[in-house]
Amino acid sequence: MVTRxxxxxxxxxxxxxxxxxxxxTADLYEAGLSSFASVQLMLALEDAFNVEFPEHLLxxxxxxxxxxxxxxxxxxxxxxxx
Amino acid sequence: xxxxxxxxxxxxxxxxxxAAAVAAAHADDVDAAGRFPREAVDAMKxxxxxxxxxxxxxxxxxxxxxxxxxxxSILGQACSASAMVFAMHQIKxxxxxxxxxxxxxxxxxxxxxxxxxxxxxxxxxxxxIGGNLRNSICxxxxxxxxxxxxxxxxxxxxxxxxxxxxxxxxxxxxxxPSDQVMTVFEKGQYTLEKTxxxxxxxxxxxxxxxFIFKGEAPAxxxxxxxxxxxxxxxMLANSxxxxxxxxxxxxxxxxxxxxxxxxxxxRKSPGSVPPGALRLAEASxxxxxxxxxxxxxxxxxxxxxxxxxxxxxMGFAVAMNNVKIASSQTILEIINHCLLxxxxxxxxxxxxxxxxxxxRDAHSAQLMISNDRILGNTSTMLLVNKQDTSLLG
Lengths: 82, 393
Hints:
The structure holds 2 protein chains of 2 kinds. By secondary structure, chain A is mainly α.
């Protein structure tokens, strides 16, 4: 799942740095994730994982790092995080 | 609604009314000369209104956003420029109160702010960022215990009158434009070189000139939280609610003038309802809409207050954006109605029904953070966020 998230982040995150240089826990906002790009990323994630983000996950924390995105998506797909 | 009821009961409103009386006496001159509303701000200090938001344990009164919005509205009925200076000061104060607690320097500053009634200004806009305050070009340089910053600040309202400026920048020289911090620079720690002169249609007394800001201060004056969190959790709601409070005040005073005009006309021709009366009823309806909208936002902010996740959520941001859009557009409609009611007496300056200043000042509402930018931001969020369709939340 993390590999797929990294792919989508590279495509939609519009980050000024390469996704490979970021650890799973690196702060994406610090890396330059804008609110517009985070919405584009959310749409791509919804499409890729066939999920819909509910209101309680639409906040900064859910998209603060690759690990946070993984947890958010996993909570929706019911997949184990490991 | 408890907060609102409490606001109404407190003597704070009495103090605000006394300051408003001073502001009203000088409003026309402040507008004509495009000068800082010195007398009104001195009166706010005398009434100890500048420190009301500081928590009680730091020497303030711990005033709620509802109470502060009420003061904004009372001042707005008297002099919009004075009210806007007060609102902007309180928005900066909310950044300190919400995000400076626990930081020794900032707690000490809040204590002084309450004791000495210090006035805070802010510098969030910068040449080259295209109006998006969540982007910075300038970066703060931390050199041991000292931080330095140079910013091409295209607007710093009442900069030369303020006791401190809260200023945004990138967190480090290699930070992304959206990775920002906010720093408090005190008077004496910076120089201002004027670049733009504030000569505008309305809100002339806010003195929102442009400057090259150059500051050097102890690094501990940088607020301990990322500006993104400050913006989402305190600035967004406080700006939109307190500005709306000011605008409601401007529209309320315009309405009061129009109503006085209709009543005078009715007394002159007993037995018939004057032609403006129907329009007054329409304006009353619009004024109530604006008020309800602000009260609903206060309730929503109050409910989200202790929940960082909720405060940073898209649903909350959409709701606050909508409050700003609605109040900034509707007040123009209200004042336009009032102008039609008062006719040439409203169009002329220097009559009890004059509305020129109200109309000019109110036009700033849809420009300060452009409504188009806000609508663009909301429309992005609505790509994923569902509209709240419940009546009671």
